[in-house]
Model the fold of this input.
Amino acid sequence: MAPKLAGSIATVAAACVEIAAVLRVAPIAGQTGLAGATNVQGEAQKELDVISNDIFIKHLRQNTDISILVSEELDEALHMQNQGAYAIACDPLDGSSNLDVNVTVGTIFSVLAVDPANPELLQAGTRQLAAGYAAYGPSTSLVLSFGKSVSVFTLDANGVFVLSADAVRVPAASGEYAINTARERFWDAATRAYVAENVAGETGPAGKRYNMRWIGSMVGDIHRILMRGGIFMYPLDSETAAKGGRLRLLYEANPMGLIIEAAGGAATTGRGRILEVPPQDIHQRIPVILGSADEVARVEAHYRAQG
Ligand code: AHM
Ligand code: MG
Done:
């Protein structure tokens, strides 16, 4: 691996270590992540996703190999005014609606090669140099892929990420699916058909029993799927259709798609590979269906059947 790419990922990892430290004591500091929160001194607090974004900017500014930051928290791409050959696209704190209840949240990131003189950020996911996420749960995990395999590191007591699983594979078959079923009335026919088969269990066409798991925090749901299989779905539905979907292409769908594919799984919009979608906008949204290859293939078959 190019030393500058390794160094850029080390910079992102350092930002994640600092975010983990902030999150660990956030309720004591009055940083619940809710707008309008106050700390014990009665001072207004910034939301934790803004704090996490500031931490990212601070770390990235220290590495002149990184010239651009695209962040969910920034309307425009932030140009660092250096000649760095890399851009980082990130969601500094995904799943922040879970912060006040101490459920796993995460940081998602993607590394792109750019020409600093003429940077092109709207790159398809196949062009990502690397992607990863940090999961802030009972332990802090850093999951990293350069597109060929997936490694999991765990943050130790000294603030060092230690390799804890290598060449992770998503099991091809699974009996777990993750989707927000409260949105059923908005679903398209393909999503309805797939979920109905799962609910029917061993007596239905799927021929086996399923469980549903939905954390409402993409990093938490995807980490479970990476480690033991399953499928994550935030499909295009009648409510999100006007925006193109719920989740973001550059810093949610593409990095997670790269990781899941590198682990032997699949990532689709339902009608095509996520990583091949040409982005039109840095904050573009997209339907996301990813996880165990057999389950994703079943969903895609339902989309084909719908024409
Ligand atoms: P966010 O980037 O504003 O945190 O939103 C993304 C999150 C994902 O982590 C999660 O999968 C999804 O939104 C949950 O959506 P819902 O509230 O519809 O269950
Ligand atoms: Mg997000």
Observations:
- The radius of gyration is 19 Å.
- The chain has a mean pLDDT of 94.
